[in-house]
Amino acid sequence: MLHERIKAATTQEHMSAEKHSYGREIMDRSLTSTQYSELLVANYSYIAAWERQWDELGKTFGLDLNLDSRRKTTLLEEDLRKQGIDPSHVSVTELDVPGTRAQFLGRMYVIEGSTLGGAVIEKQLKLNPNLNDSGFAFYGGYGQDLIPYWKAFLAVLNTIEDTVEQDEAIAWAKASFTDMEQCFISARFGSVNS
To answer: Who has greater pLDDT, 56 or 129?
Structure first.
């Protein structure tokens, strides 16, 4: 199944992206409000760009993923505003447009997987005394629908059986982790505008 292949093949890129996303600080509850703002900016920079591509592409590739209910841009905007950041001042990254269903699903794998991980992150953020005045709409993701949405996504992903198409999905997932890593780096070492 593609799910197992893509997970194994992207381990290095996944770990590399995580190096820049304050994982230790999240888990030991020492993440500062500024660092949290950087995480939100990084995610918004990538996800807003990605979701702008959905409308046409979802129809083009005939995907039955209920994309509208998977949107996270408005959740990020809510959290950014709570941090005192105007989302319209956040630069959105440039992303290549997927040309095939496999490419689309490869990128979507990264975003849906990060939503799954967001549930763990949300619990730690809520226990962090530095973030008492923060919002966690984004990391709360799909709420009670998290596991059903993940399973529905995997069901679609695993319909890709052709090895060439699987390789294409894996390549796009790897590139997506790398693109996300660059967004984290830019947010950490750039300036967070309000």
So the answer is: 129
